[in-house]
């Protein structure tokens, strides 16, 4: 059963990548109507409760971990509201390691069916519309940098995805 209310950890992108992804998302959402949400890669969740200890651990985690490059598989879609249309990301060793390290912070369940992706539209959309949209979108052949981790409050029942805190993955950026 899907938990629709809680806290998730998202990966966020630096301005250049975010701008590019948001341009694609705008094209997609012009054709496939969707609730508004920040462009992101879901890393883990849900957490039912978050406390200050976890926030401190998350901040320390970000300070001691580097941004990672995400390899793109391409545009994909499914007949699921939250995977209606998205960019599929390859589940690389770096991404798996990052998620394993996050797990160590709070022992959240890391499901084996993790399918990393960057959603471009939420909703119930016709397959025909989705298929026709793909050739109209920019080619995706460069990796995308994920540079932040964000703690997000989610209540899918009211289309709420609110970033509460975000932390730069800046291990390599230390003086």
List keywords for this structure.
175 residues; Cyclic Phosphodiesterase, Chain: A; 30% strand; globular; alpha+beta
Describe it for me?
With 175 residues, the protein is of the alpha+beta class. It has one domain (5-173): Cyclic phosphodiesterase (Cyclic Phosphodiesterase, Chain: A), CATH 3.90.1140.10. The protein has helices spanning 15-31, 52-63, 93-106, 127-133; strands at residues 5-12, 41-47, 68-70, 72-76, 85-89, 117-121, 144-146, 148-155, 160-168. α2 packs antiparallel against α3 (93-106). The longest helix is centred in the first third of the chain and has 17 residues, at 15-31. It has 4 helices and 9 strands. A 4-stranded antiparallel β-sheet has the order 2-1-8-9. Helices cover 29% and strands 30% of the residues.
Short description:
This protein has 175 residues and is an alpha+beta fold. 29% of the residues lie in helices and 30% in strands.
Topology:
Layout: E1 5-12, H1 15-31, E2 41-47, H2 52-63, E3 68-70, E4 72-76, E5 85-89, H3 93-106, E6 117-121, H4 127-133, E7 144-146, E8 148-155, E9 160-168
Antiparallel strand pairs: 1-2, 1-8, 3-7, 4-5, 5-6, 8-9
Helix pairs in contact: 2-3
């Amino acid at each position: 059963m899907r938990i629709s209310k809680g806290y998730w950890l998202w990966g966020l992108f630096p301005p250049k990548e975010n701008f590019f992804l948001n341009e694609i998302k705008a094209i997609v959402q012009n054709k496939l109507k969707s609730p508004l949400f920040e462009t992101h890669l879901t890393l883990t969740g849900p957490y039912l409760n978050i406390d200050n200890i976890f926030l401190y651990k998350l901040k320390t985690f970000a300070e001691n971990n580097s941004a990672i490059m995400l390899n793109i598989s391409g545009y994909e879609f499914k007949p699921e509201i939250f995977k209606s249309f998205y960019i599929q990301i390859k589940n690389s060793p770096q991404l798996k390691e990052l998620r394993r390290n996050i797990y160590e912070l709070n022992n959240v369940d890391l499901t084996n069916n993790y399918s990393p992706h960057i959603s471009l539209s939420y909703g119930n959309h016709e397959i025909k519309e989705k298929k026709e949209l793909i050739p109209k979108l920019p080619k995706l052949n460069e990796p995308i940098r994920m540079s932040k981790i964000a703690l997000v409050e989610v209540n899918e029942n009211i289309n709420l995805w609110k970033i509460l805190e975000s932390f730069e993955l800046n291990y390599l950026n230390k003086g």
